[in-house]
Each structure stands twice: as C-alpha cells, then as structure tokens.
Design brief:
Blueprint lengths: L2 E8 L3 H12 L4 E4 L8 H4 L11 H4 L5 H6 L9 H14 L6 E2 L4 E7 L4 E6 L4 E9 L21 E4 L14 E5 L3 H10 L5 E6 L6 E2 L7 H20 L18 H14 L3 H4 L9 H18 L3 H7 L12 E2 L2 H4 L5 E5 L5 E4 L3 E4 L3 E3 L2 E4 L8 H5 L1 E3 L6 H4 L18 E3 L12 H21 L5 E3 L1 H14 L33 H13 L5 E3 L1
Parallel strand pairs: 1-2, 1-6, 2-3, 4-17, 6-18, 7-16, 8-9, 8-16, 9-12, 10-11
Antiparallel strand pairs: 4-5, 5-6, 13-14, 14-15, 19-20
The chain binds ligand NA7.
Length: about 525
C-alpha cells in the first residue's frame, strides 16, 4: 500500500535527522528513506581507519537543543568516526527519530504527479510513498566513485573504497597495500595504517597542502570551558565567512612586516585544524603573493620533515595554496621516511590498468594483497542525479541540468515544485562547517513549508528568472578568488562525469551573506519563488 506523508526526506545523515526533528516540531508528518542499514550518512559510510572531523567537534555538533549540548561530551577536539556515529545515534534516540526512518531503502524514482500535486517516491526494494513535499538530504559527498581504470573488477585480493568501508575491522598487519588518492581521506588512512602494513604504496596524482590537525583529548578543564562557552562558539561560527571558529586577521598580508607574517603562519601551523587555511590574513583567498608565501612556508616544513629530498619534492603541491580544502595531518610526512612506504607519482607514471594481482603503471607491476580506493565522490550533484527525479511535464533533473546545475538559493529548481535540496549545488559548502550550514538550510526550508501551510498555499517553485540570477550570482561569487586556479576539484565538478566542467558548483559569498539572503527572501514573501 502507498503511504502518504506531508514530507518525505531522502537520507538519514546530519541533514536528514535534523529535518525530521524540525518537521515533527512544526507538526508535519514525515518519513525518511535511507539507503544504508544504519543512520548517520557520511558518518555511517566513511568508517575507514583514521576517519574523523576536520571541524572542531564542539563547532560541528547540532546547536538546536541546549539539553543535547549539555549532556554530550566529546572526547577529542577532532573526534573520530565511531564517536560521531554514536553521537548521531544518541540524537536519533533522544528525539525518538528512528521510528520514522526506513533503513535499507535507497530511493530510485521521485516523480511529480501534476494532477494531485504530490511527489511519488519508489525505493529500489519496491517501497512506495507519496508526499506534498520532498527534502533531498542526500549529502554533498556521498556518491562515491571508483576510477575508470581497466581491470578494477579483476583484482583477486581485497578491494576497498573509503566510502564503502566494511563494518568489521580490516587487518593490515603484514599486508602489501596500495592506496589510490591523496586527498583528505587518503591522508587520514595512510597515516593510520602505514605502521601496520608490510608495504604501503601511495598512488598520488595531486599532492595536497596538508596542515597539522593537532588533535588531542579534551581535558576536564577544557570541557568545563566548552560547557560555559557553547553558545559563544555557535555565535562565532555564525559570524565567520566559513562558519568555523577560525577568524582571519583583518589586515591584508603584505601590509604586515615579513617577520610578523612568518610568525603568524607558524602560530597558525601550531594551532592546527583549518587555522592556517581559514584564520590567515584577510586577503589569503585573493592575493597570490600572500598564498604563495604560505605555500613556501609549508614547502619548507615538508622539506624539513621528509628525509629523502626527491620524495619531499613529490609531496610538495604545485597548485596555489588555499584552493582546495587542506587535509589535516598527523605525522603524515614522517610516514614517507619509513622503508616500508613508497610513493608513485601518477603524473610521471600513470596507472595503465588494475590486474588480478595489483596495479600496473607504465613503469612497473605492483603486487598487492589489498587495494584501497580513496578516490572521492561525484560531488554535490552526484546523489541527486543518481535518482530519477522528474518534475513538471515529466522533465528529468538530468535534462534540467544538462548545461550545469541551476538552482534558486541552492534549495529549489524551476519545474520541480515543493522539492527541496539541503546543501545542494550553489550553497557555501566548500568553505562551510557542514552542520552550521545544514541547520540554517533546514530551518529555512521547513519554515517555508509552514508559511505555505499557514497561508493556504499548496506549492512553491523557483521562478526561471530567479534561478538564472542565483546561478549567475554563484559563478560571480568565485570571481577574483584564487580557487579559479584549481578547476580540477570537486567544487568545479571535475569529479563528475555528468557535469559540464568549469561550472562553479558553490556559493563563495560566505556563510553570513548566505544566511542574510535567505532571511531577506523569506521576509519579502519568498521573492523569486512562485507560490500557488
Ligand atoms: P577528494 O578530495 O575528492 O580526493 C580524491 C583523491 O582521489 C584525490 O587525491 C584525487 O586526485 C584522487 N583520484 C580520483 N580519481 C583518481 C584516479 N582516477 N586516479 C588517481 N587518483 C584519483 O576526496 P576525499 O574523499 O579525499 O575528500 C573529500 C572531502 O572529505 C574533503 O574535501 C573533506 O571535506 C572531507 P586528484 O586530486 O583529482 O588529482
């Protein structure tokens, strides 16, 4: 039998759980469909060794319940995946969310019935439901991708993808392991497993500007401080451009004497997390001179830490500092001093194929017991486009986005009434502390549904004009920023075969501006949306 709800939420990660909480609070009936066999989204799938926050735990957690904040104590400044997953279960249990979550239910089709003005949803395992509204809480980095090398299926050893890691621990002791990728995920895995492996070979295409994470246990004294300052931390995140606790120095780098600049880089390097990336001088995303100086500072650190000068040069990135998220590292560079660790630079010797016994490059055949793919995701649009979403006149989202994603405010697409995306394309996610952005997205969307209900409207839909204007504004938001140097990154959609390359997929105007725009649009009776 087809069930009917006010709202269907797709995904039970950080966004989906909060959506359900908020919908219930405002009296909407809701059902969540989740592909995994457990809740948690990103923190359910990415259970690889070393997986942990890159935001400080206390700045990432939900802010909506004081009781929840007071009772949950994080053990580390950057907590690890098992603790994060436990936290999300704690939230789901505390607010009794699980009774409205259907696990193991991957949504296959989402089709708009124009006569009834209802969305009809069907999962891959045949569950059906209808709803007035749909919230896609499917995540930015959830559609994982394998490289399209010949022979990926042929490998006879153990193949693992970081985003589909098994629940049982994997034993690396005495094993010969190859890992493809050198992004934030690969860095976390490499530094965790290298001491165990008999041999670890890293296949690196692009080195990254890693900065020290400086993770540590939270002491009882610090805990008292966090309890006292919890609201201040959230308020600070509301003010900063990226929604993190890191505040830049208001001065432009080159107006500051060189010795003082270098001392600041060192201080930020010692502080850890995203300090050096987000807490630097105010022009660090626009001034090449400033970015190059930070790069030089970090390159010096790599040369100090890696004994073999040839290896060190391979590990020094060639791209502009700050144009990708900086992986947080602990002893990452020292790992490459181990005799058991090797690096293959794929720019020099590309992989030609995966064989039954290992990885073949132009130069060599590397035999392995285990191959790890830390090769990332079809970012931002991937999961939305894997579903068959069809709006008015049967038009698919794929068709609608054939020239790149088009959205109004990142939350709606013209021709898809009452369908919302949380953290879809054209939001500030590149620089955003995800939960901070998720909360404001969800609150706005659910507030909008309440407005419709209270004012007798049935549908809301982005207008074509507003969608074009917002999409254009997102492209413009990246103008003048150094991130344009790095078109080969997930925020330009380079990891998505279905995307038009070179289209900026995010909004780079900052988290405070994004929130103000939302408030303004709502205050003007949802300007840019058609209500009927
Ligand atoms: P990323 O940041 O997209 O990194 C993926 C890595 O995999 C990166 O080093 C890629 O190299 C590499 N890659 C992808 N495809 C290939 C192929 N075909 N051959 C060789 N190497 C490849 O994903 P992560 O999971 O590390 O991190 C995602 C986010 O999680 C991150 O931004 C943080 O916010 C947390 P490339 O750079 O494309 O040359």
């Amino acid at each position: 039998m087809t069930q009917q709800y006010d709202v269907i939420v797709i995904g039970a990660g950080v966004s989906g759980l909060y959506s359900l909480y908020k919908l219930r609070e405002l009296g909407f009936s809701a059902k969540v469909f989740e592909a995994g066999t457990g809740i948690g989204g990103t923190w359910y799938w990415n259970r690889y060794p070393g997986a942990r926050f890159d935001s400080e735990s206390y700045s990432y957690q939900y802010s909506f319940s004081k009781e929840l904040i007071d009772e949950w104590k994080w053990s580390e400044h950057f907590s690890a995946q098992p603790e994060i997953e436990r936290y999300l279960h704690h939230v789901a249990d505390k607010f009794d969310l699980k009774r409205d979550i259907e696990l193991n239910a991957r949504v296959a089709t989402v089709v708009y019935n124009e006569t009834d003005k209802l969305w009809e949803i069907e999962t891959q395992n045949g569950l059906r439901a209808n709803a007035r509204f749909v919230m896609c809480a499917t995540g930015l980095l959830s559609a994982h991708q394998f490289p399209d090398y010949e022979g990926v299926e042929s490998f006879k050893g153990l193949s693992l993808h970081s985003a589909r890691w098994p629940k049982e621990p994997v034993d690396f002791k005495g094993k010969k392991v190859g890992i493809i990728g050198s992004g934030p995920t690969a860095v976390q895995i490499i530094q965790s497993i290298a001491p165990d492996c008999a041999q670890l070979t890293v296949f690196q295409r692009t080195a990254n500007w890693c900065t020290p994470l400086r993770n540590a246990s939270i002491t009882p004294q610090e805990q008292l401080e966090f309890d006292r300052k919890a609201q201040d931390i959230f308020d600070l995140c509301k003010r900063t451009w990226a929604g993190f606790i890191h505040e830049p120095d208001a001065r432009a780098a080159m107006t500051v004497p060189k010795a003082e600049r270098l001392a600041r880089y060192q201080e930020l390097y010692d502080r850890g997390g995203f300090s050096l990336w987000l807490g630097n001088f105010s022009d660090s995303f626009t001034s090449r001179e400033a970015a190059d100086e930070v790069a030089e500072f970090l390159a010096g650190k790599i040369r100090e830490r890696v004994k073999d000068p040839v290896m060190a040069e391979k590990l020094i990135p060639k791209h502009t500092f700050g144009t990708k998220r900086c992986p947080g590292e602990k002893n990452y560079y020292e790992i490459f001093n181990l005799d058991t660790v090797d690096l293959v630079d794929l720019r020099e010797t590309p992989i030609t194929k995966i064989t039954p016994t290992g990885i073949e490059t132009g130069a060599d055949l590397h035999d392995f017991d285990i191959i790890i793919y830390a090769t990332g995701f079809h970012s931002i649009t991937g999961e939305l486009l894997r579903m068959d979403i069809r709006g008015e006149n049967g038009k698919s989202l794929k068709e609608h986005w054939s020239d790149g994603p088009k959205t109004n405010l990142g939350v709606q697409f013209s021709g898809f009434p009452n369908l919302f995306a949380i953290m879809g394309p054209h939001n500030p996610a590149l620089f955003c502390n995800i939960t901070r952005c998720v909360e404001s997205n969800v609150e706005w969307i659910v507030g909008c549904m309440r407005y419709l209900r209270d004012n007798g409207f049935e549908t809301i839909e982005a207008t074509v004009e507003a969608e074009e204007a917002w999409t254009e504004r997102c492209y413009k938001s990246a103008e003048g920023l150094l991130i344009n140097d790095m078109q080969d990154s997930w925020f330009f959609g380079s990891t998505n075969p279905e995307n038009v390359r070179g289209r900026f997929l995010l909004f780079a105007g900052g988290v405070p501006a994004y929130r103000e725009i939302f408030a303004d649009v709502a205050a003007k009776g949802y300007e840019g949306f058609r209500l009927s």
